[in-house]
Write a structure and sequence with these properties.
The protein is of the alpha/beta class. The chain has ten helices and eight strands.
Length: 210
């Protein structure tokens, strides 16, 4: 299991500082949707330039104009780019083709998706990376049961499964590495008094279960 650090609702300076502090314990750095909306592709390019060996995920949440947005993100240095499960098949197909050009991957965000058949159809299109996701607004209402969504990706034997939504040091210890490949942690690290120590602890927990 790998650890992905989600950088969102942060300033540019905070993003760079947090990567510097935690890079040793983080496998993938996610540049969150809010950060991209604030700073554009420039921050993706700049993070890639400063941390060239760290895989980057650009959380584009693409739902249209897939070819264009995929070229934007992969061209800026992203290794992974997200697309929404409800996007049109053509959007996903276009993104997968661009990803192949860059030797990258498209991660399908399953936020608010409840249809296993839709996930299976995306798999048949060629998608292999899927993120089980409880959004920030639903977390605020106490909904953190992201593992209950695992039925959406059941049976995708060669798929890479991500999990996101309010993961903390405590909940990280309950993640089954036989089901999940990438644990995404945002405020559990970024809002900690000591982000480096938090990243080290969560990293240690998930690696001990792998």
């Amino acid at each position: 299991m790998r650890l992905q650090l989600a950088l969102d609702r942060l300033t540019r300076e905070e993003c760079f500082s947090l990567i510097q502090e935690t890079a040793e314990f983080v496998d993938i750095v996610e540049i969150g949707t809010g950060v991209i909306k604030e700073y554009g592709m420039a921050i993706v390019r700049d993070i890639h330039k400063q941390f060239p060996d760290k895989p980057l995920l650009a959380d584009m949440k693409t739902c249209d104009a897939g070819r264009h947005e995929a070229y934007q993100a992969f061209g800026a240095g992203a290794t992974f780019v997200t697309a929404m499960a409800f996007a049109a098949d053509q959007t996903i197909k276009d993104m997968l083709l661009v990803a192949k050009e860059f030797d990258g991957e498209v991660v399908i965000d399953l936020l608010n998706c409840s249809d296993p058949d839709r996930v299976r159809s995306l798999y048949e299109l060629g998608a292999r990376h899927f993120c089980l996701h409880i959004g920030k607004d639903m977390q605020s209402k106490g909904d953190t049961s992201v593992l209950a969504q695992f039925n959406l990706v059941s049976g995708l034997d060669d798929g890479t499964i991500y999990i996101a939504g309010g993961i903390t040091l405590e909940s990280a210890g309950r993640i089954d590495h036989r089901l999940i490949d990438v644990a995404i942690v945002g405020s559990g690290i970024t809002a900690a008094d000591n982000p480096r120590a938090a990243a080290k602890s969560i990293h240690s927990v998930i690696k001990s279960k792998s």
